[in-house]
Amino acid sequence: MYQPPVLINREACTACGICGKVCMFSIIISDESGSPGLNPHAPPCSRCGHCIVFCPSSAIQLSGFGERQIVPVLSEKPVTPDQIKTLVTSRRSTRQYLKKVIPREVFENLFDIVRYAPSAMNLQTVHWQVIYDTSIVGSVGSAIISWMNRMIEEQRLHEFAIGSSFPYITREWEKGRDLITHGAPHLLMTYSGASDPTAPTDAIIATSYLELTSMAYGLGTCWAGIIKRAAEWSPEVRSVMDLPEGTIPQTVLLIGYPALRHYAIPPREPARIRWNG
């Protein structure tokens, strides 16, 4: 049975016309009196929710969400420029972790926030795989070392950006130094379906959101591209990580409580900017 993409409360609607103005695909159009209606010739609705959030009278709902969808904005300026600058410039890769697990409810809070990260056409292609058991994280490291040794034996190091480092990484592993997971208690991976062309960018955005959000919970993170590459190439690594069949790994993030505190922000090159006009 047909269900319209949006539901309009005619009693609450003031016919201001804002919903039609903010709808990118003109799903909502206004008649001569300003009253909104659905355009029968419009392309499919992306369910972005702009009609909801810009409606001053809360007269619109997205079909299928019920009462869950209306969350009022508490402040027009939730953070100051100085606060956001401090957050972003204080972000560091964490490679020393406490032997302390993160409560599951903390992860649930993080994912509840990060699900609002933007995605192309609001397709929301990102799925999260949480390697919560620390022993499995260690098994991932072992599987990657086995894969690296195989790449060394087959003389395929040139196929990987850091392939020249594989011999060093495997030697350090034998000495008891983990340069794969760095002793992180947990590991997060984003993955997507094989036919999602926007997924790589969507995943990077979502992972960046989670990385910054995690700082508010006292957590440290580190991007682990080598784990993502290994999951692409090694069936053994995929098996240990229990990735669903037919999916593509997109990003990997180590996460845990930092063992060390940093005291400064390192220098960076100036922003490279070209002005046009």
Structure characterization notes:
The protein is of the alpha+beta class and 277 residues long. The protein folds into two domains: 6-69, Alpha-Beta Plaits (2-Layer Sandwich); 84-256, NADH Oxidase (3-Layer(aba) Sandwich), CATH 3.40.109.10. It has nine helices and eight strands. The strands form three sheets. The chain has a four-stranded antiparallel beta sheet with strand order 5-6-8-7, with helices on both faces. A hairpin with a 5-residue loop joins β2 (28-30) and β3. The longest helix has 20 residues, at 134-153.
Structural class: alpha+beta
| Named CATH topology of the largest domain | NADH Oxidase
Q: Major sheet, described briefly? A: 4 strands, antiparallel
Gyration radius from CA atoms, angstroms: 23 Å
**The CATH homologous superfamily of the largest domain:** NADH Oxidase
Domain 4Fe-4S ferredoxin-type: 4-33, 34-65
Organism: Methanospirillum hungatei JF-1 (strain ATCC 27890 / DSM 864 / NBRC 100397 / JF-1)
GO molecular function: oxidoreductase activity
Pfam families: Nitroreductase (PF00881)
